[in-house]
Amino acid sequence: MLRMRMLALLLAVALPSSMAACSDPFTYTYNKIKYDNAEESGRSYTLYDIYPGGCLWNFTTAKAICEQDGLQLAPHGEAQSLAVLRELCAKNRYTCWMDGVPADPSADLCYLMSQEGDVHLQGCDQPVRFVCRDQPCSNPFTYRYNKIKYNNTKESGRIYTLYDIYTGGCLWNFTTAKAICKQDGLELAPHGEAQSLAVLRELCAKNRYTCWMDGVPADPSSDLCYLMSQEGDVHLQGCDQPVRFVCRQRAAAGRAAARGVAVPSEGVLSLSSHGYDYRLYTVDAAVRMSYHGAVEFCQELGAGWDLVPYWDDSSNAYAAVLQLCADLQFTCWLKRKDDSRTGSSGPMLCPLMAADGGLQMQGCEQDVRFVCRKAQRAT
Ligand SMILES: *[C@@H]1O[C@H](CO)[C@@H](O)[C@H](O)[C@H]1NC(C)=O
Ligand SMILES: *[C@@H]1O[C@H](CO)[C@@H](O)[C@H](O)[C@H]1NC(C)=O
Ligand SMILES: *[C@@H]1O[C@H](CO)[C@@H](O)[C@H](O)[C@H]1NC(C)=O
Questions:
Q1: 58 pocket-lining for ligand 1 (C-beta < 6 Å)
Q2: Is the separation of the CB atoms in 83 and 39 below 8 Å?
Q3: Where is the signal peptide (predicted)?
């Protein structure tokens, strides 16, 4: 009796679970094997491999799984896609579906890459593996641009960056271009400065590119924005057009550069804590500034950025700075509670965290490291 009940129990457990392994192709946890294709600026391809006992699916299902994941089935008609599938599929002796519409769509045949790395048209119902890849330009803020830099020695080494795209990439309207510069701690190069115009002639016009330029037109209601044409002329045109753009270092960064201090994208230590993003400038001490220089530097990173107020217990600000500075034996500026001069005599003093983690008031003119922060919710 007991034995029969155990058997029934075993069956009840074993049957549904062996079916469950195959039940839903859209919720199965695939063994995802990624390939970041350097030839396409790191575009990501993912082989949806299965674990032992997992199931393979037909063409329609494979394509739908990619789409569910915000990706696209890698197509047969592109050299880069083929090259990556040879790595992910053929080298592993896997057959893989490839996207594409055959010349005769009524034939019910679909493209696949064979184990040998050849492309064939075969029945769409076969269960084989598949590779999904990133959409070409689903998100302008995370796309990896082909950034072409220009060091403008006439502005003491201010850096301008053309945000070029790779084949298949997308161009964006004025608003998006400006927002991308800001996200990167930069500003859209403006139309109203001779230096900016000269650099854009080098980066854009010489390459026959049209580029957005910042600036508010005389009639802001006109819905027109400044751009430099392929010929190097400045025009006001509709703000919706998809064209390239150039971001440049902000003024404080430019002044830092003038002092021989390049604004780093490297050597910056980052930390997220209690809803704030913190950045230490810089680990290698390439950027050290006076108190006021540090305030200006942080604020020019964009809206919401500032030196860290040491008294803000609600966000554990002091602990975050301890982690970035004192834990690494660095001295760092903190924000003054009151930026107006207090007391009438003696030099102004500014708060800093000493390398031992203590809070000190010291002369504001010393060049030391500093930490900027911004609330994650602020724009
Ligand atoms: C593909 O497979 C799904 C189930 O995974 C099935 O519902 C569908 O009919 C199949 N489609 C084709 C065209 O074979
Ligand atoms: C820009 O050029 C100047 C002069 O050649 C050089 O000193 C400086 O390091 C350069 N800046 C960068 C970030 O490459
Ligand atoms: C600019 O493009 C973004 C999407 O990239 C869109 O959401 C926005 O409405 C566009 N703005 C204008 C002014 O065209």
A1: yes
A2: yes
A3: 1-20
Nearest to 115 by CA among 87, 85, 95: 95
Q: Please say whether the beta carbons of 308 and 278 come within 8 A.
A: yes
Please report the domains of the chain, with CATH numbers, ordered by start residue: 26-134 (3.10.100.10), 140-249 (3.10.100.10), 254-336+348-375 (3.10.100.10)
Q: For the whole prediction, is pTM greater than 0.85?
A: no
Query: Considering only CA atoms, which residue is closest to atom 14 of ligand 2?
Result: 151
Is there an atom of ligand 2 within 6 Å of 345 CB?
no
Q: Is 272 in the pocket of ligand 3 (CB under 6 A)?
A: no
Q: What is each CA distance from 163 to 172, 188, 315, in whole angstroms? A: 11, 11, 36
Q: Which residue minimizes the CA distance to atom 7 of ligand 1?
A: 61
Give the C-alpha distances (Å, rounded to integers) separating 111 from 95, 120, 341: 11, 6, 74
